[in-house]
Write a structure and sequence with these properties.
Number of strands: 14
Largest sheet: 10 strands, mixed
Strand content: 15-25%
Number of domains: 2
Number of helices: 12
Structural class: alpha/beta
CATH class of the largest domain: Alpha Beta
Radius of gyration: 25 Å
Distance between the termini: 47 Å
């Protein structure tokens, strides 16, 4: 069966309109209708839709066929992704996921050394948030990622790379920018800019943690979808935000960052994660350089005891106050 039939059917089933579905799949509406008829009459030999001039709905057969059609397409797309990944791995390409800002602390140290050690390895960098990196690792779309964690699951290994202090990003023209450290009560003068919980749960939880620890509440500000847009909102004077210390490397000129004046200020951990069963030829060399050039003393993580694989190296001081 031509996969176009499945794509066309899914589009009509989701839109319940041949006109809108034709726009989704970028084809003419008469052609789409003809292909659906062919799928029904010649291939499945049963109607998938009930339709008239003003209404389209799935038949019982269509309702049963829809989840299977989606599953088939997803399996094909995954097979394509795995084949491309295998080809890239064989050619020596290493795909690295990272969050904006982390590259300044890690990649500028590691990539030159990797090129010197393995000049045949071609590096591809992908800017992804933590949840997307976990998904990309499991889908074999990246080989290694720098992200917040660790996450549950026996398929991934996690190693602590950096521990960053939590800082406050404030508008450069605000009077608080004159202070070296900012007392938490003074930050209540500004709205707290938020980030989506599903994209940056740890960063979003900073406000809750600091409220609980200090007893100070913050007025809610606008919500952004990443560190770049968050810093832009701060620079525009829309409020302040809590961020990892590495944000200082990428802040725009209209933003200042300051340490927090509080007892036991929280810290944020950054991990390197990779698949436990990955045999990529350049991955182990890359990880060895990360451990040598970047990592603080650490313990590896994994649901089945990855610390035993590499040995316990101890924990940095202040671990009790880190946020995961």
């Amino acid at each position: 069966m031509d996969l176009r039939y499945l794509r066309y059917f899914i589009a009509v089933a989701e839109e319940l309109s041949f006109t809108r579905a034709a726009q989704v799949v970028h084809t003419a509406q008469p052609s789409l209708s003809q292909q659906i008829r062919k799928l029904e009459d010649e291939i499945l030999q049963t109607p998938l839709f009930r339709r008239d001039k003003h209404h389209v709905e799935l038949t019982e057969a269509g309702q049963a066929f829809l989840p299977e059609a989606k599953s088939i397409l997803a399996a094909v797309e995954r097979a394509i992704s795995l084949a491309r990944y295998a080809a890239l791995s064989a050619s020596g390409r290493l795909v690295i996921g990272f969050m904006p800002g982390t590259e300044g602390a890690i990649l500028v140290k590691v990539l030159p050394a990797l090129h010197k050690l393995r000049p045949e390895t071609h590096v591809l960098l992908r800017d992804l948030n933590s949840p997307d990196q976990i998904l990309a690792l499991r889908n074999k779309e990246i080989d290694v990622g720098f992200l917040r964690g660790p996450s549950e699951g026996p398929d991934l290994c996690w190693e602590l790379v950096l521990v960053d202090p939590v800082i406050a990003a404030i508008p450069a023209k605000h009077p608080l920018a004159k202070l070296e450290r900012i007392p938490i009560p003074m930050l209540s003068e500004l709205p707290l800019i938020g980030v989506p919980r599903d994209a940056a749960a740890i960063i979003r939880g900073l406000g809750d943690r600091i409220v609980a620890q200090s007893g100070v509440s913050f007025q809610p500000g606008p919500e952004t979808d990443g560190i770049t847009s968050t810093l832009a909102a701060v620079g525009a004077g829309l409020g302040f935000c809590f961020l990892p210390g590495y944000a200082e490397r990428i802040k725009p000129p209209d933003v200042e960052v300051r340490r927090l004046e509080m007892d036991n200020p929280p810290e944020i951990e950054l991990y390197v994660a990779y698949r436990r069963d990955d045999s990529h030829p350049g991955l182990q060399a890359f990880l060895a350089l990360v451990r040598q050039l970047v990592c603080a003393p650490q313990t590896s993580h994994g649901s089945q005891g990855t610390s035993a694989e590499r040995g316990s190296r101890g924990r940095p001081k202040g671990a009790a106050h880190r946020i995961r």
